[in-house]
Write a structure and sequence with these properties.
The complex is a heterodimer of chains A (350) and B (568).
Chain A: E1 4-13, E2 16-26, E3 31-35, H1 42-50, E4 57-62, E5 65-66, E6 77-80, H2 92-102, H3 107-120, H4 136-149, E7 154-158, H5 166-183, E8 186-191, H6 194-200, E9 203-208, E10 211-216, H7 218-223, H8 228-233, E11 238-240, E12 244-248, E13 251-256, E14 259-264, E15 272-276, E16 281-284, E17 293-302, E18 306-312, E19 318-324, E20 336-341, E21 346-349
Parallel strand pairs in A: 3-8, 3-9, 6-7, 7-8
Antiparallel strand pairs in A: 1-2, 1-4, 4-5, 9-10, 11-15, 12-13, 13-14, 15-21, 16-20, 17-18, 17-20, 18-19
Chain B: H1 2-5, H2 7-17, H3 19-22, H4 28-53, H5 65-72, H6 74-107, E1 108-109, H7 113-116, H8 118-125, H9 128-139, H10 144-151, H11 162-187, H12 190-198, H13 203-232, H14 235-240, H15 247-257, H16 264-291, E2 304-305, H17 308-336, E3 338-341, E4 344-350, H18 353-361, H19 364-393, H20 397-405, H21 414-425, H22 436-460, H23 464-472, H24 477-506, H25 511-514, H26 522-532, H27 535-559
Parallel strand pairs in B: 1-2
Antiparallel strand pairs in B: 3-4
Helix pairs in contact in B: 4-16, 4-20, 4-21, 5-6, 5-16, 6-11, 6-13, 8-11, 8-17, 9-17, 9-27, 11-13, 12-13, 13-16, 15-16, 15-21, 16-21, 17-27, 18-27, 19-22, 19-24, 19-26, 21-22, 22-24, 23-24, 24-27, 26-27
The chains are: A alpha+beta (350), B mainly alpha (568).
């Protein structure tokens, strides 16, 4: 259990700045996710905490101790690698026992701790297998057990689920989250998958080119994106051009191509655009009521539990709209429809 | 992530911007140590050789006199052109023999195909001294086969000279082409051929327009390897060359005649051969490696089953290859147990005398060979393990230098290396000339690039993350190497060690220059006996040499399940 503080950290490779004066603080027992597309610096930041990369500027604190230049093998972090990094010549048991042997536990203690740990990850029956004889999910569990058994101060996970198939990935999310909750350990999780981030984290830092774009709870990030980047990355919001805006009471009136809509009023930004999630737009046959914007159906995608429509606004810009399968009006391409926008839509900085 | 997934984009600036932080790397010391070893055994001797070649024999000042003499003397220029001709002729011959054989083996099934698997083995267990001696016994002036053919009215041209050299070199080296082309053929994604056929190409057109262009770089690469082997070869031109001089034999005879005098001409000849091989290697690196195509991992095309006449022909063909490759072993075994009076072999009468002499009366060459090969193999394997690890995994500037220097020995033929080492270590602070250390060092330098190559191949498949996992769990970087990386490398290291051992046993071209009375190795002793005409005595050492080579290979393949031929 530990608290991690990152102060003004910068890392460059030649001319490219990978991490740019980034500051962050992660609390005791928190499940913290670094989220972002490839190249945003999230893995670099994680490896910096593990000690494999040393920042050019700034400090890293573990509790109150400065670990910026502490060699990686003295940091007491447990890391789960993207490719699991299991030792191929060692059995499951020996893989998990590796860190304990280094710490000079007696063989009785090792036996006990490893068995317990393997039990917890559901591999109690396979201690003598070699990594090559395990399925992807089982390897993942060994990697987790190996990192957790040394009772590290922080658990670091670098896209641990990216090599698993879709079903297993969802199952392992719960396994990881439960293990973290049981051990009450501080965990830092790196992913580019917004669903993983939303479903597992206490807090998420959305990274963008080496800086934090938004730091929030999953709910906050989804409901109140601050930038078009955040709105687009999480939940793939439609970004609609704003022609004019005007505050009236607790509403914000916005002119967009094709008409005027009204949403709940936050403080409007200078060069803002409208972030409207696909499920926050509804389609109608008639445009009698106010607040309805004309649009034309381009095509429809059927996804089983829902259908999504690609539509075109008056100025030719595109928007996507989700409809639950049960309410699907089955519009054909070319159909003229009218869109209404929920008041939960927001203005975001571009 | 950009920071890790695109090492090429950032390598260059990273090297310079973090020179300072690298000075803390725990691997700096080992890499500097590796560099120093190569500096002492390769770079410095090579430098001394170049320096020596540009001195005036009388005054000792800088002078191009040696090179002027080289280009002005027909004997030297002829030796140079002979070397190139020999190289080209044997390269063409090996390609013509090796490449079609590889194609047939990769693409067709026929009875007796497993026999062909013996071929790679033949190159390793048959040192070229054994091969040259055996063909000498068959086709030389008193050769068995020559007499047999004469009795039916066929007169062969003299075996000494071009005929013997080219013939033996081709038979000795075509397996390298075969092994290389077989690997290239197996790496071809079969679906590109199916695509060509699907688009309407006939089988012939497909082979010409799709298969051949994809194989061309590998063909060129193997041609260059065989060319450098031909330039490097010592025993074949020495034993079979007759009056034809090539660089390696002329360098050696010049070395012998300049003994004690000023070593200008041997240095000049050595420099010329370094430049020749260096040019070939340079072209290889520049042209061939850039032209190599990225192949998607795919399944190799299925071998076609042959029936009837074609299968009989293919089987016959393959059997012929195997027979010709294995004949030297048979001949040398016969020779070892044949009664001889002086140089006259009495075929048909048998004796244990030769073997007894080699094993009991004069066993020193056996002991020397085993000692030198063991020292070279142990030192070389340790070195190759560390060096290949550094080269593949650690990007610090000392390692970038190391990466180039370790392959330098490939440009130095054995005789040249021997002369360079002698000139460097016969005076000054460290005197090694006339000790076994310098012989072991020569074997080490000659063989270590191959060990590094095969150890590197295994390292590429070991992800960096397992090492990081170990460090993350609390083990220091150096200890992590021993606990995590080394065990995974173990099979490759063992394989490299065994190959280094057996190829060191067969080595003659460097040690012939470096040996001194009492330190003859088996190949050197064979060479001297052949030179003196005692073929039966030479055969006895040949048999023992083959045994000490075969036994460890057999044990490794049988018990350690090593795949010794994959990375050659």
């Amino acid at each position: 259990m530990a608290r991690i503080t990152i102060e003004n950290v910068t890392k460059r490779y030649g001319d490219a700045t990978i991490i740019d004066k980034l500051s962050l603080s992660i609390e005791h027992g928190e499940f913290f996710t670094l989220l972002g597309p490839s190249g945003c610096g999230k893995t670099t930041l994680l490896r910096m905490i593990a000690g494999f990369i040393i920042p050019e500027e700034g400090r890293l604190l573990l509790d109150d101790e400065d670990i910026t230049r502490l060699p990686p093998h003295k940091r007491e972090t447990g890391m789960v690698f993207q490719d699991y990094a299991l030792f191929p010549d060692k059995t499951v048991f020996d893989n998990v026992a590796y860190g304990l042997r280094v710490r000079r536990f007696t063989s009785k203690q090792i036996q006990e701790k490893v068995s317990q740990m393997l039990e917890r990850v559901g591999l109690g029956h396979l201690p003598t297998r070699y990594p090559g004889e395990l399925s992807g999910g089982q390897r993942q569990r060994v990697a987790l057990a190996r990192a957790l058994v040394i009772e590290p101060r922080v658990l670091l996970m670098d896209e641990p689920l990216s090599n698993l198939d879709a079903k297993l990935r969802i199952q392992m999310r719960d396994v990881i989250r439960q293990l973290q909750q049981e051990s009450r350990i501080t965990a830092i999780f790196v992913t580019h998958d917004q669903e993983e981030a939303l479903s597992m984290s206490d807090r998420i830092a959305l990274l963008r080119q080496g800086t934090i774009d938004q730091l929030d709870t999953p709910e906050g990030l989804y409901a109140r994106p601050g930038t078009s980047y955040a709105a687009d990355f999480i939940g793939a919001a439609n970004l609609v051009k704003v022609l004019a805006q005007e505050t009236r009471g607790d509403s914000l009136l916005i002119d967009i191509p094709g008409g005027r809509i009204s949403i709940a009023a936050p403080t409007p930004g200078p060069d803002a655009c409208l972030a409207a999630r696909p499920e926050h737009i509804a389609m109608h046959d008639d445009g009698e009521q106010p607040d309805r914007i004309p649009a034309q159906v381009v095509f429809r995608r059927y996804l089983g539990f829902k259908a999504t429509y690609a539509l075109q606004l008056a100025d030719g810009s595109g928007v996507n709209v989700d409809v639950p399968a049960s309410d699907d009006p089955s519009y054909l391409p070319g159909a003229q429809v009218f869109l209404s926008f929920s008041r939960a839509c927001r203005l975001v900085a571009t | 992530m950009t920071a890790h997934a695109s090492p090429h984009a950032r390598r260059k600036p990273e090297i310079w911007s973090s020179l300072f932080s690298q000075s803390r790397s725990p691997w700096l010391l080992p890499s500097v140590f590796c560099l120093l070893v190569l500096l002492a055994l390769v770079v410095w001797p090579l430098f001394a050789l170049f320096h020596q070649s540009a001195l005036d024999p009388q005054t000792g000042h800088f002078s191009m006199e040696g090179f002027r003499q080289f280009f002005g003397t027909p004997r030297y220029t002829t030796a140079f052109s002979n070397t190139v001709i020999l190289g080209i002729a044997s390269t063409l011959g090996t390609l013509l023999l090796g490449a079609p054989l590889a194609y047939v083996v990769a693409r067709y099934d026929f009875p007796g195909k497993t026999l062909v698997a013996l071929l790679p083995l033949a190159t390793i267990i048959l040192p070229d001294i054994v091969v040259s001696q055996a063909w000498l016994m068959l086709l030389g002036n008193n050769g068995i086969a020559r007499h047999a053919l004469e009795s039916v009215g066929i007169d062969l041209p003299s075996f000494y000279g071009w005929f013997g050299m080219i013939y033996t070199l081709i038979l000795n080296d075509y397996t390298y082409v075969y092994i290389g082309m077989l690997a290239a053929l197996k790496a071809i994604d079969g679906s590109i051929e199916e695509a060509a056929v699907n688009l309407g190409a006939s089988n012939f057109r497909r082979a010409l327009t799709v298969t051949f262009p994809v194989l061309a770089p590998a063909l060129l690469l193997n041609a260059m390897i065989v060319f450098t082997l031909a330039v490097d070869n010592f025993s074949i031109p020495m034993i079979l060359g007759g009056r034809i001089d090539v660089l390696s034999s002329l360098t050696y005879t010049t070395f012998l005649s300049e003994m004690g005098g000023s070593p200008i001409m041997q240095s000049v000849l050595a420099v010329v051969s370094v430049v020749l091989v260096g040019c070939v290697l340079f072209v290889q690196k520049r042209v061939v490696e850039r032209k190599t195509y990225q192949m998607y991992q795919g399944r190799a095309p299925q071998a076609i089953k042959t029936r009837g006449l074609s299968s009989v022909l293919l089987t016959g063909w393959a059997v012929l290859f195997v027979a010709f490759s294995m004949i030297p072993a048979v001949i040398v075994i016969i020779g070892a147990f044949t009664k001889a009076r002086g140089p006259v072999m009495r075929y048909g009468t048998w004796t244990l005398e030769n073997m007894e002499r080699a094993l009991r009366t004069a066993p020193e060459p056996i002991i020397n060979s085993l000692l030198l090969a063991s020292v070279a193999a142990i030192a070389g394997t340790c070195f190759a393990t560390v060096a290949s690890y550094l080269i593949v995994k650690k990007r610090i500037w000392t390692v970038s230098v190391l990466d180039y220097v370790v392959m330098l020995p490939l440009a130095i033929s054995g005789t040249v290396l021997g002369i360079a080492l002698i000139q460097t270590y016969n005076s000054g602070m460290i005197i090694l000339t006339g000790t076994w250390v310098i012989m072991a060092a020569a074997l080490f330098v000659r063989k270590v690039p191959f060990s590094i190559r095969s150890a590197s191949a295994s390292l590429y498949s070991i992800p960096d993350s397992i090492e990081e996992a170990s460090i993350n769990l609390g083990v220091s970087p150096i200890a992590s190497f021993f606990k995590v990386v080394l065990p995974v490398m173990k099979p490759a290291i063992l394989g490299a060690a065994i190959l280094m051992w057996v190829t060191s046993l067969a080595e003659i071209s460097a040690t012939i220059v470096l040996y001194y009375g009492g330190m003859e190795t088996m190949p050197i002793q064979m060479f001297r006996q052949i030179d003196a005409g005692y073929l039966a005595r030479a055969s006895a050492y040949g048999v023992i040499l083959m045994i000490v080579i075969i036994v460890p290979i057999y044990l490794a393949v049988r018990f350690l399940k090593l795949d010794l031929f994959s990375s050659r």
